[in-house]
Amino acid sequence: MSGRRTRQLRDALVLAASLGVMSGVLLLRRSREPSASPIPAPASAPEEPSPLPRGGEPERTALEEREAQAGCDFADHGFGGYERWRPLPLGRLLVPPARAISADGGYDLLVHFHGAEAIRKVLAPRDIELVIAGIDLGTRSSDYARALEVGGWDALLHAIDREVGAAAGIAGARARRLLLSSWSAGSGAIGRLVERGGSHVDALILLDSLYASYMPGQASLVPGQLAPYVALANAAARGAPVFYLTHTEIPTSGYASTKEVATFLLSELGASPITVTSSGDGAPPPAPGLGAAGAGEALRLTRMYDGGSLYVRGYAGSGPGEHCAQLRLLPAILAEHVLPALGR
């Protein structure tokens, strides 16, 4: 190899290493009052598909059609006090009435990945006074991971601040507390965010959406890949930020299902779930006027674990209806576990 080509190769390697270091210092949250311990970096996550039909990056109407095809056709009771969706560089935003924004521009932010329109239908009419960002980027976890490469997350947070400030007529709006949630393939975004390191979140809600890779040719998990989630679960068990994990019994091929991952996380903590034998409906009842028509069969709780601020819920069912119905759980999770933990 010529001296010139050797120098070119060396320079390319140095540049790649520099970019890697720069990406490592990206923080998940720019908070004035951090409330969680830093999260260690995981190994690569599998590219698990959503049960929704695969395609490109559809517009809102196409996404609604896909959700309906999979049993996610929730009753639509409007936008409540949010008025309308506001466009973002990635996804869309719901801004609550001005009373939810403090005089200094502080607000509580929920960023949800995958199923934005369904989340709007179950949350917007309930007057929960959260700024809600809904992000739909595709039907595979890799679609979400790629969109949050270096700079993408910070750009999104800045855009949300600007939009909230403009809507409320307040300069310097800034998220004071951050809640993250995902459903199905949206977990790809969560994995990308927690691997940045130095992350601070106030609550993490994973609705049938945490998967893991197997060792090649085996049915055992790749060592270390779930380390960030084990750390979060340990912190939550000690009363730190809320970590709420749900799963169905949907089987997966070539990678670990959400049920397998939930079982693994609890075993890492030396904990065991309680088996629920009741035949009652495990899903929280809908709020007045918010029926669950079209949302699939009623969920049946089969196992559960509560420890500190760690909550694990397992539900029967292995079809798209039960998978979509996980989205109906979010309002009760927020009302019963997350918002009280935030002093609201």
Highlighted features:
17% strand, 10 helices, 344 residues, 10-stranded mixed β-sheet, alpha/beta
What's the SSE blueprint?
Layout: H1 3-24, H2 60-69, E1 86-87, E2 92-94, E3 106-113, H3 116-123, E4 131-135, H4 141-147, H5 152-168, E5 174-183, H6 187-194, E6 203-207, E7 212-213, H7 227-237, E8 242-247, E9 255-256, H8 258-268, E10 274-275, E11 301-307, E12 310-315, H9 320-325, H10 330-341
Parallel strand pairs: 3-4, 3-5, 5-6, 6-8, 8-12
Antiparallel strand pairs: 1-2, 2-4, 7-9, 10-11, 11-12
Give the uncertain stretches in residue-range form: 1-45, 49-61, 66-70, 279-297
- Radius of gyration, taken over Cα atoms and rounded to an integer in Å: 20 Å
Structural class: alpha/beta
Total helical elements: 10
Average pLDDT works out at 78
Helix content: 25-40%
Q: Tell me the distance between the termini.
A: 65 Å
Taken as a percent bin, the fraction of beta residues is 15-25%
| Strand segment tally | 12
Give the SSE order as H and E letters: HHEEEHEHHEHEEHEEHEEEHH
| Biggest β-sheet strands, sense, barrel | 10 strands, mixed
Q: Give the strand line-up of the largest sheet.
A: 1-2-4-3-5-6-8-12-11-10
Morphology call: globular
How would you sum up this structure, described in words?
With 344 residues, this protein is of the alpha/beta class. It contains ten helices and twelve strands. The strands form two sheets. Strands 1-2-4-3-5-6-8-12-11-10 form a ten-stranded mixed beta sheet, sandwiched between helices. β3, α3 and β4 form a beta-alpha-beta unit. α4 crosses α6. The longest helix is centred in the first third of the chain and has 22 residues.
